[in-house]
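User: Hey, quick favor. My workstation is busy. Could you predict this chain's structure for me?
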Amino acid sequence: MLATGLGIAAANHGHRVLFATATEWVTRLTDAHRAGRLPQELTRLRRYGLIIVDEVGYLPFEQDAANLFFQLVSSRYEHASLILTSNLPFSGWGGVFGDQAVAAAMIDRVVHHADVLTLKGASYRLRNRGIDTLPSIRTQDAAD
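Assistant: No problem, here it is.
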């Protein structure tokens, strides 16, 4: 919700904004790579002031997908804004991207010049449903 709200606010202020899930971004980049136009696609995407990538870490990436996603992050680094949402701490990104070195390089670019927000608490989607917390949150809190 927060990323969507920021995207809407940016668009209302005249910025070009794109929003998709991490899986959708990888599919888009894979298609461009297969067509031999990945560099052109990354250049085109840099024209957008803000790209929002939702659900980073919900599904693990295969090595080729992780490399393509890294290229998206890297191509925007110090050129344009990027919002990433994830249910994982950065320490879990190595498992998502299948390679600690790729994850570390990506995190390095993501957090440089960034504001990192960590949200805790009940899910907005679960309000008024009688569910206080999600199982993963309870497990993590119990370990703290």
